[in-house]
Amino acid sequence: MLLEEGEEPLSDLGRRAHAAIVGGPLDPSRSSTYPPAVSLDVLVPAASSRRRRRYRYRLRRLTPVAILVVVAFAGGAWVGAHRTPTIIQAAGSGAPPAAQRAHASRSASQRTPAVPIAPLSLVHGRPTLAGRVHVGLSAVAAILVDAKTGQVLWAKHPHQRHPIASTTKIMTALLALKKVRPGDVITVDPAVTRVPLVREGLRAGEHVQAWKLFYAMLLYSGNDDALQLAIASAGSKAAFLRQMNAEAKHLGMRDTHYTSPSGVIDKGNYSTVWDLAAVTRMALRNPTFRKIVHTKVIHVRWSAPTYAKIYVNNNSLLRMYPGADGVKTGYTHKAGWCLVSSATRHGRTLIAVVLHSNDIYGDTTKLLNLGFRDS
Fold it and tell me: Residue 221 catalytic?
């Protein structure tokens, strides 16, 4: 039993009670026989009464403290509930602090829906030479554009959709050059070795510098190179195709859709001469792209057992037409012969596109001559 300060042991209480019963104080020196001892059970009611008194005493002392705690809590809650409106009102009455202005700006930007970015207008205007000259072309569709301004000079079925074969690789190069640096070393994915012809013969697992893949894709027109650059850029063919179609939309290519990074698949892979001129105009802004498509032939070192490769540009216009400086040929049975080309004379660059032509170089020469003669 725990004793508090000022309390007596039960044994002393019992002795005093016993002394009171026998009629005098307890004297241990007396030898007379004491009456029978009184049971300590008679003390229980007294102890219980004492505890009740102590309990009531403590309760009276703690009650005011509890009331003060409750009042303080309620007062704090009331002040907190009414503080925010006061600050907002004060902030609105004058120039808000910098932190509040920044917070308000962020809140406004979160509430305001994002404004969609308008597509670029890379090719525009009515053909300036329309009706002034007659140009007989074998191509089903063709266009001539000023590379600097994007102004259309001459056009034949400019918005007619057609399969575009390997001219698809212009968009592939445009996107891949944004993600892959020419000096990056790429490990060839096994999937690229199974792509349909034309292939340059990449081997699964071999390590190739990216610039070699760009030259092979744009000069030799390797479909395996195009797929490898697509995977290296976006992680997968499907992801890269999504990027291609998103970029086409951003460039204002309303009549273009890609289903292959190489153009080897005709189904669903289409564009127009107008849209091809637009993507070419954008691609020519990249100096690396311009350098590659202007290259006639390049010798490349390779790992064993190949040791070396020679890439010859399929675009024979580079060797036929003075001032020609790009860009890409294409062919499938369904698309026919296609050519996107550029040439520069006296500081002026023109872009010519012909699709499904029986004479891509003859048709292109006529268009370029027309443009330079008019300048």
Answer: yes
Residues 71 and 217 in one domain: no
pLDDT digits (tens, 9 = 90+) for 89-109: 333 334 444 444 445 455 544
Which one of 156, 169, 212, 328 is the catalytic residue? 169
Least confident of 45-54, 128-137, 212-221: 45-54
Strands 162-163 and 308-312: unpaired
Let me know if residue 325 belongs to a domain.
yes
Q: Is 249 a catalytic residue?
A: no
Q: Which of 166, 341, 342, 357 is catalytic?
A: 166
The domain that contains 351 carries what CATH number? 3.40.710.10
340 & 216 share domain: yes
Long-range contacts, 13-18 (Cβ 8 Å, 24+): 13/43, 13/46, 14/38, 14/40, 14/43, 17/42, 17/43
Say if CB 123 and CB 150 are below 8 A apart.
Answer: yes
pLDDT of residue 110: 54
What's the domain range around 17?
11-23+39-93
For 203, other C-beta atoms within 10 Å of its C-beta total 14
Provide the domain count of the chain.
Answer: 2
The one-character DSSP state at 151 is: B
- Flag whether pLDDT at 336 surpasses 90: yes
Asked if residue 153 has pLDDT above 90, the reply is yes
Q: Are residues 61 and 153 in the same domain?
A: no
Residue 76 has pLDDT above 90, yes or no: no
* Torsions phi, psi for 211 (to 5 deg): -60, -30
On whether both 290 and 150 belong to a single domain, the answer is yes
Please report how many Cα atoms fall inside a 13 Å half-sphere around the Cα of residue 106, on the Cβ side: 5
**226 vs 2: which has the higher pLDDT:** 226
Is residue 375 part of the annotated active site? The answer reads no
Token digits of residue 269: 């892979």
Domain for residue 59, yes or no? yes
Query: Residues 258, 320: one domain?
Result: yes
pLDDT score recorded for residue 52: 66
Instruction: Please tell me the distance from the alpha carbon of residue 108 to that of residue 139, in angstroms, as a whole number.
Output: 54
Query: Exactly one of 29, 121, 212, 221 is catalytic; which is it?
Result: 221
In-domain check, residue 366? yes
pLDDT at 62: 66
